[in-house]
Structure to design on (74 residues):
């Protein structure tokens, strides 16, 4: 058997801004568009979840929310 090299993670490249990150939370409101940056009416961050119930896992996504069918509300 070959010996495997130890896994090394480059923390600078772990997160791509286009990746989705699963957020677990006990939100008390439905997931809605949440903007944390606004340039030219483009939302750079927002919460999306299929059921609208944020007691479940939600996805935090970067980019244009209209790609997910969410109207931009910035």
């Amino acid at each position: 058997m070959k010996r495997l090299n130890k896994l090394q993670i480059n923390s600078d490249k772990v997160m791509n801004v286009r990746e989705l990150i699963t957020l677990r939370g006990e939100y008390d409101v439905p997931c809605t568009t949440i903007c944390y940056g606004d340039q030219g009416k483009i939302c750079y961050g927002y919460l999306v979840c299929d059921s609208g119930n944020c007691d479940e896992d939600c996805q935090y996504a970067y980019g244009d929310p209209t790609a997910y069918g969410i109207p931009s509300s910035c």
